[in-house]
Each structure stands twice: as C-alpha cells, then as structure tokens.
Amino acid sequence: MKRARIAAAAGLLVLAAGCTKRVPADLINKLPYDYRIELLEAENDFALAIDRLDEAQAEILHTRDTLRRAKERLSAAESETGRAETKASQEVATLAVDEADARVAFLRARQAVNVKTEGVQKKSLRCAEARFEQARMVVARKAKVEGSESLRPEEFDAQVKECDADVAELKAEMKEQNDDAAAAKDAWEKHKTALARKTFDARASPYVE
Q1: pLDDT at residue 114, as a whole number
Q2: All structural domains of the chain with their residue ranges
Q3: What is the DSSP string of the chain?
Q4: Which of 17, 39, 79, 82 to pair with 175, CA 20 to 30 A apart?
C-alpha cells in the first residue's frame, strides 16, 4: 500500500513539473534484496511527506467548512441585535456580533496560513522524492548495478539542496500570515472573553463555544 501511494505521488509530481531527476526503474529492478532494504528509510520519509500534504489539504477543507458556519453565526448574531428589547440584551447582542465577526476574521487569517502550509508541503513532497531518488542512486551505485555508473551523484545532490532551500524560503515567507493569524486569534479571544463575562458562564452561554 505504501509503495503504491509513493508510485502514485511520484506520477503526480512528474505530471506537475516533470523536472526531478530519477533513477531508471530497470536499475532498481536489478537490485538484490539486501540492497533494497536500504531504501526503506527513504520510502518511509516519502510516505510521511504524502501524509503531511494530505493533512494540510484536509485542514483547508475543515477550515473552509468552519468558516462557512462562522459566517452563518455572524448573520444570526446580527439579526439578534434587531430583536433585543432591553439595554442588557442589546449589549449582549452587540458583544455577540463582535465575537462572531472576530471569529470570521481569525478563520480567514488561519485559512491563509493553511494555504501557505499546503504550498510548503507540496514542495516538501518534491524534496522527499528528490531524497528518495538520491537514495536509490546511492544504493544502485553501491550495488554496482550495470548502468549505475552513468548516474551522476552531484546532480542528485544538487536537486535535494535546491529543493530544501526552496522549502526554507517558503517557510520564511509564511511569517506575515502566521503573525496575522496570531493577532486575529488574540482579538477573537478578547471578544469571546468579553461576551462570556457578560453572559456570566462561558460554558453555558449560547453565544460562546
């Protein structure tokens, strides 16, 4: 199952860019079993990179659904302000709108982080593939498989180094989104606390999750 997922992911990466230098399959097929075992760690890392990308994409879908519900909550809170009859209920309704609005702002900021994270994981998956191919090259040359002498280690090393540098750059570029999300979360927490205090019990309040 793991190797099937790796093969499928490698195929998608080829379609997406087609630039990763690969070890010909016929060389790997010639490897003795003892040498194939040496590829297990690289295979596991590749599989983990696939899982991380799956998780990042699942988080985008989850946050998208949560944001939709938060917008519905904001709309309901706004409607409630028009039905508030007393000063106290009006204050609660206003705080509920502020909390719901802050929640939407936070979720939008978090989704921006999620999208950036997906980009990092996509590039990280390509890096995992590059390291996998690097490991295959090393093992093929170590086993002295016929044809492996034509593989150039410096080319495989260079693509790993370049890919890792790209990932580091993408992560550095996420600082603004992470800072925005942190600030939005702090703002939401303040509004949530204010609403909870006004309604006396945060856990029992219909306005606070």
Answers
A1: 98
A2: 2-16+24-198
A3: -HHHHHHHHHHHHHHHT--S----HHHHHT--HHHHGGGHHHHHHHHHHHHHHHHHHHHHHHHHHHHHHHHHHHHHHHHHHTT--SHHHHHHHHHHHHHHHHHHHHHHHHHHHHHHHHHHHHHHHHHHHHHHHHHHHHHHHHTT-TTGGG--HHHHHHHHHHHHHHHHHHHHHTHHHHHHHHHHHHHHHHHHHHHHHHTS-TTT-TT--
A4: 17
